[in-house]
Design a protein that fits this description.
Length: 99
């Protein structure tokens, strides 16, 4: 696959995370990884029902795609033992996807 095709796959993952599209995880990931990922994303969406975001910066070389991402949400459910605060939060991070 070309680097542009790999970027498209990585972008599709970001969309799937935003929309809790579990079918996309099955399509785009190894089965054992998809199951683990679904659990984590489900927990995020329970705690932050309006969870959404995107990649801000993306660089690809060969089969690797690096993303600087940002996701937003409102803390409306328990998360990692923390009671809901009603606050708006921002998650920033880096990911490295191998396509």
């Amino acid at each position: 696959m070309s680097t542009e095709e790999n970027k498209a796959v990585s972008n599709r993952m970001a969309e799937a995370i935003s929309g809790a599209d579990f079918d996309a995880f099955d399509e785009l990931m190894a089965p054992e990884l998809a199951e683990e990922f679904k659990q984590g994303i489900a927990e995020l969406h329970l705690a932050f029902p309006d969870y959404h975001g995107t990649s801000e910066i993306q660089v690809a070389e060969g089969e690797m795609v690096a993303n600087r991402f940002v996701f937003y949400g409102t803390h409306q459910g328990e998360f990692m033992g923390i009671a809901p605060t009603g606050r708006r939060v921002t998650f920033r991070g880096l990911s490295l996807d191998r396509v």
